[in-house]
Amino acid sequence: MVHAEVAVLGAGAAGLSLAHRLAQAAPGARRVSAVLVDAPPGPLRPPSRTWCFWEQDAGPFDAALTAEWRSLRVHTPAGRPIQDDIAPLRYKMLRSDDFERLVARGLAHSDDVRRLEATVETVHGDARGAEIRARAADGRPVTVHARWVFDSRPLARLPAARTTLLQHFRGWFVRTERPVFDPATVDLMDFRVPQPPRGLAFGYLLPTGRHEALVEYTRFSDAVLPREAYEDELRRYTQDVLRLGAFEVTATETGVIPMTDARFTRRPAPSVFRIGAAGGATRPSTGYTFSAVQRQTRAVADALHAGRDPAPPPAHPARSRAMDAVMLRALDSGRVDGAAFFAGLFARVPMERLLRFLDGGTRLREDLSVGVRTPVLPMLRTVAELPWLARTPSAGP
Q1: pTM
Q2: CATH ID of 2-76+96-158+263-306, from 3.50.50.60, 3.40.50.10240, 3.40.50.2300, 3.90.180.10
Q3: What average pLDDT does this structure show over 347-374?
Q4: Cβ atoms within 10 A of the Cβ of 166, count?
Q5: Over the stretch 114-144, which tens digit does the pLDDT of each residue have?
Q6: Nearest-CA neighbor of 366 among 375, 374, 358, 357?
Q7: Cα 302 to the chain's mean position, in Å?
């Protein structure tokens, strides 16, 4: 039987981030005993993936970054490039394997946080604490008792919502024969790909050298595609749009991210909290999650080290969630053309301000300045419609 003040379930971005912060207590801070419960190697452990986020200047995970950029570019459906310097922000690329190695090094030198490989089967919590029943890889039952539980495991089913779209993508890590990439600039959204009748599609290019890049095909819609469809779109994009010439695919990446206006329960039991995507950290309008995870886990770790109630704060401001609900509904209903909507925003709003807006870091006046640069009449019609829409269950990805 394992006893700890804190149990962290799942070792994705949120679980690893919280464990890392608990192991990095400031001098004089209250010490917190914690156990990170991670599934053994197998289908319940998430595959390698890439996280991108933006922050100002240096950050705590810079040692593990694959690359970072200050120049972003968007291509309109007609092919016009829109490029801007996002200083003082930096757009950063972090591979999950590199992040896990960085966290593992910190945990190896911590007396407060231990790691346990086991598959969680049940979690029962009340006002006094929680009991976690799990099973080790060899079939041995494991029980963990903790005062607080932070569960970052994916939800089996999404909460009921008025609108749920899926951001689904496939990416190729490529190495070209010719030096075709500009390693100083990210192509954040390239709309020079065929657009679906509803939703939108775009290319995404993260160059890590003159010959190397991650190239993705991404779509916002209500259903995923067959794998062959992603491969066809990537071949078309790399050959007909980017004109890369000869290249080899060194690795692949696939993902599905729910974009929903559902209300996520952050405290399913008095001593149990959900964090990360399961706790609503994914920004509904973009699918970005990593920055919100850092805000959540920083607040939780600070509260625990100070001896306060460690309830995670909302991942995004209420005003941001309300604006996202309008955008999702307008996109899903077909009232706005998705590619034109996003291309128009990047054309009319400085990218640095738009990124701060997408991260919930803008003031009301700045939010309004972004809002008036959207298709006003379709958005107002959607605002009037939303209160009358029922929230319905969604199977999710």
Answers
A1: 0.94
A2: 3.50.50.60
A3: 84
A4: 21
A5: 999 999 999 999 999 999 999 998 999 999 9
A6: 357
A7: 22
